[in-house]
Amino acid sequence: MTERVEVPDLRGRVALVTGGGRGLGAATALALAEAGADVALLGRSEPHLATVAGAVRQRGRHAAWAVADVALWEAVRDSVAEISDALGPVDILINNAAVEGVTSHLETLDPDEWAAELAINLNGPFYCARATIGSMRERGWGRVLNVTSGAAIRPLPGKAAYSVSKAGLDQLTRALAAELAGSGVAAIAVSPGMLDTGMQARLRGSPAPEMELFRQAHSAGMLRPPEEAAALLRWLCGPHGDDYSGQIVSLHAPDIRARAGLPALAR
Ligand SMILES: NC(=O)c1ccc[n+]([C@@H]2O[C@H](COP(=O)([O-])OP(=O)(O)OC[C@H]3O[C@@H](n4cnc5c(N)ncnc54)[C@H](OP(=O)(O)O)[C@@H]3O)[C@@H](O)[C@H]2O)c1
């Protein structure tokens, strides 16, 4: 399904994938390793990170991992320093870690839940970019790829904090691109649509009536494999990524699918 997607030569590059222990993050870590990148993983669950690091090494690349919560600036800063000592400075940042949060209408949403979700999904990507873009700029090349969601533009009742965090991430992407213009560092947001991962399983497993659309999408076979979104993220790490800095790229958009070599989707 992704065989026709051009694979950039990422030998000599160091990638940092947040949430790289499972789901889309794990698929992306392996895709980048297959293109020659050394890969660092950052997440909270050490066994998952260790497993994916082993799979990166099986592909002949160096791997490192750091156990950290992206919502904590000092933890991110120290983890990036450890990773840079182990593998070299980060060239590619995949801001993938996120949570879908609790399901609650705003009228009853616990303010602490709101703050926690924004801290992971929006502050986290800023902290990771803050810790890595200086060295990318110094070396005149880099990629910051932020994994966003259609929820950024289509709010779902009960999931406002998630929607707002992803809308903020889209604007963070544009702000990064504007500030990094001309530096050789591209910042791009990728909206993957519904992926067959643990996040979707939890959404459709929720008894909340608003989550019915996820149950229907699953029954209708609408979920895409995470490997397909990973192939697009990897493709954007190549020279074509320069054309998309500051843009929100959808995995479902026919033009990007055609250009990247992904098969057209049935309408
Ligand atoms: N699945 C979908 O349908 C879908 C649709 C649109 C957008 N997305 C986006 O795609 C990305 C990946 O989602 P997924 O489906 O792969 O989700 P997932 O299977 O739930 O994986 C989420 C990852 O994020 C990590 N993570 C969560 N909170 C963290 C924290 N505080 N600090 C560090 N790492 C943290 C998790 O690792 P630990 O638990 O080890 O920390 C895990 O590796 C997310 O940005 C999501 O919003 C997904």
Summarize this structure as a short list of keywords or feature phrases.
Rossmann fold, 7 strands, alpha/beta, 7-stranded parallel beta sheet, globular, binds NADP nicotinamide-adenine-dinucleotide phosphate, 267 residues
Architecture, according to CATH? 3-Layer(aba) Sandwich
Secondary structure class reads: alpha/beta
Helix-residue proportion: 40-55%
Overall body shape: globular
Largest sheet: 7 strands, parallel
Unreliable stretches (pLDDT < 50, length at least 5) are none
Describe this structure in words.
The protein is α/β, with parallel strands linked by helices and 267 residues long. It has one domain (14-194, 223-259): 3-Layer(aba) Sandwich (Rossmann fold), CATH 3.40.50.720. The chain contains nine helices and seven strands, in the order βαβαβαβαβαβαααβα. Helix 1 links the parallel strand 1 (14-18) and strand 2. The protein is globular, with a radius of gyration of 17 Å. It starts with 13 loop residues before the first strand and ends in a 7-residue tail after the last helix. Bound molecules: NADP nicotinamide-adenine-dinucleotide phosphate (NAP). NADP nicotinamide-adenine-dinucleotide phosphate is lined by residues 18-19, 21-25, 43-45, 48, 69-71, 96-99, 120, 147, 149, 192, 194-195, 197-200.
